[in-house]
Structure formats: structure tokens, C-alpha cells
Amino acid sequence: MGLSPLRNENPTMDETRISQTEELHPSTLDLDLLSTHDLLHRINDEDRRAAWAVEREIDVIATAVDAIAERLRTGGTLHYFGAGTSGRIAVLDAAEMRPTFGADGMVVAHLAGAPQALTSAVEGAEDDRAAGRAEAAGSLRPADAVIGISASGRAAYVLGAIEAAFETAALTIGITGDGDSSLARAVQIPVVLRTGPEVIAGSTRMKAGAALKMTLAMISTAVMVKLGRVYGNLMVNMIASNAKLRARAERIVASLAAVDQAAAASALGQARGEIDTAIVMLRCACDPAQARERLARSGHSLRAVLDGLRGPA
Q1: What is the reported pTM?
Q2: What is the pLDDT of residues 57-67, one digit of tens each?
Q3: Is 9 a residue of the active site?
Q4: CATH number of the domain that 170 lies in?
């Protein structure tokens, strides 16, 4: 467990040391002298370290996933707080939760300096600790989970949000590239992605950003699986908002309900596009309201409903 109350730490502790993400990479000191081919190989060699860094933290990430899923099962929300590249990656991941898993409002991203910071740098936004505190204090409940994201582990906006999360009694998780940083020390579950120095010193949009994207996608996907929003490897809560996704929804329903595509399309129409509802309608020979009731009783788990068909309904 981390220390959590950041106000009890020395505020200059991080400022007097060079973050691990700012160190010079000894293998890229001649970067501007390399041929294009060698330059790209040098970058690619370092990119491999992103996956290795994530792999080394699997056990910690698993702890985070289980803790987040427990919060979300009881009505909590998962909040991301980040700045710059880290915050934009968080926004991207959160934006995919509704269309992919039907998880409307379950994952929310907070970006320092938003909305302008989505497309351009906002000077000083990541240094605004008070803004992070205020954003978190106005958004969080005790049932929520918070992931603070900062490659250096010292973005003041993120640290302010974690401080407010601690005071709210929300679950706190940190993702950073520096295990000695304030963020790593402050949270209950620190995920330290040890990607090391960047090809270009301090440019964490590179392998640190790649490792972060992998980690957030891994966490959010695993949480949604744990919440029953995936059946096997199928997106049974997907929002079919275009022709490609509507065709995919029909294939999913046809496959899991053992019907042809026309019957699947008809059931989806009656179910207002809800894939799991349409499957339960067909498998249980019931109307949409009854199908939704069965899903609600099962904790909105299609797996639980279908497994229950083997015994008494």
C-alpha cells in the first residue's frame, strides 16, 4: 500500500532528482548521425521494452483489475487522471468503453487542460495541482476507483487528484515509469512500467506511452470481462452504431442463439439493438422485457443466464 496523503511528503522531493524518464539513453547518443534504417531499428529495439515492462507488472495489474471490478460491481465508476500524452491515451481508452462494452459512464477520463489539451499542449496544465484536486473532489465517490497516470510520476495535476481521491476513500492506483516517484509512493496499488530512458530523452510519447496504452487497454478490457460484458471472446454488450457493427451484432446473435441471420436481425430489432437481450430472447423463447429481467437477475451476465438454462429457469 502507498502512503496516500501527499500533503505529508516533502514537496520538493521529486524536483531535486532526475526522473528515470528523463535520463539519457546511452545507446541513442548518436541518434542524429544514424542512417534512416539504423535509426528506425534503434527505435524499434526500444519499443520491444514496452511489452516487457507490462509483462513484469502482470501480477500487480491483476490486483488492480480485481479491485476495480469489485468497485464497479457495486455501482462505482473508474476514473483516469492524466496530463499530456498520458492523459490523451486515457481519454482514448475511456472513449472506447461505451461502443465496445456498452459501459456508458463506467469509465471516465480527466485530462489536465481539457478540452483544449486534447489536440494541443496547454501550458502549465499538468503543473496545476489545485485543478486536479478540484476535478477529483467534484467527481469522486467512495465507491469509485481512480487511476492516476504520469510517466514521471510527478505531474502535479495527477498528484492533486490522487490526494482528493484518498480523502474521498476511493481506490487509488498509479501508473508510472518511475518507482521512486511521488505517484508510486502515494497510491494503494502502484503499477511501475520500467521502460527506462527514451530514445529521445524525456519523450515519453514513445515507449512509455506505448506501455501505458497496453496497460490501460489490458485493465479496462479485463475489468469488462470480469463484469460479464464479454461472452467467450464476443462483445455481447457492443453498441452497433454503424453498418459494420450491425452486421457483427447479427453474426454474434446468430452464433450464440443458433439461428439464421434473418432471425438474428429480427430479434435485434425487437431488442433495440441489445445483443445480449436478443440472445436471451431467442434462447429462452421470451420477450425483450423478460429477457432484460433475466439478465438483471444474473448481474447482467449473459454467461450466467445461458448456463442457468441447463437447470431450472
Answers
A1: 0.89
A2: 999 999 999 99
A3: no
A4: 3.40.50.10490
